[in-house]
Amino acid sequence: MPSTESSPSANRLIAALPRKDRQRFLAGCAPVELVFAEVLAKPGTLIAHVYFPTESSISLTTPTDACASLEVSMVGDEGMLGTTLILGVDISPLHAVVQGAGPALRMDTARFRRELTTSTTLQREVKRYLYVTMNQMAQTAACARLHVVEKRLARWLLMTHDRAHSDEFYVTHEFLAYMLGVRRVGVTMAATSLQKRKLISYSRGRITVLDRVGLEAAACACYAADKAAYTRIMA
């Protein structure tokens, strides 16, 4: 069982709970190790568990046609998977796949619903986070329609960097193409351009962020808009 003193800080939603609520909440969580590309939820299926990433990240995607999908949101230690439960809906609207392997906390749906009725702070934080997620989805929709692949890739790398707890993370061009909803050749060209500018290095599926400031300058304005919305609402 995770320590009630060290674990809350690893997920910001849990850390926001009052001490008593936090200890009770953690008692109902199980530590799990998420595996890269593991599917945690599928559209139209019942939500069996909610997940609170600590040193991992989850991509939420929606199908665009029979063989392609688009990432619409990303979950790291700032949030959770399963926010629709606050609306009384226990059906997953999106496909959830592990993007960054690592530890997380998991709670079964029934226990989480009980916690929602017990803690007004938890209700407030989850509602705010749901708003932030909706804002991120809207921003991503506009980004996919209006911005070139290189700027979108820079934004995606920054979002992943924020949640990776490391300057280096594993991701293939195939996975990036799947997340961005573009052809692999487009991702290869965009990644090559960022690498030539010495913003990142890429080798054998390992991406290293070399110049964070430069990468922010290369990204579209959507990245800054996402961060501003999170700070404004969650603060």
UniProtKB/TrEMBL annotation:
Pfam families: HTH_Crp_2 (PF13545). GO terms for cellular component: cytosol. The keyword Hydrolase does not apply. The keyword Coiled coil does not apply. SUPFAM superfamilies: cAMP-binding domain-like, Winged helix' DNA-binding domain. Residues 151-217 form the HTH crp-type domain. It comes from the Bacteria. GO terms for molecular function: DNA binding; DNA-binding transcription factor activity. Coiled coil: none annotated. Keywords: DNA-binding, Transcription, Transcription regulation. This is Crp/Fnr family transcriptional regulator. It comes from Candidatus Tenderia electrophaga.
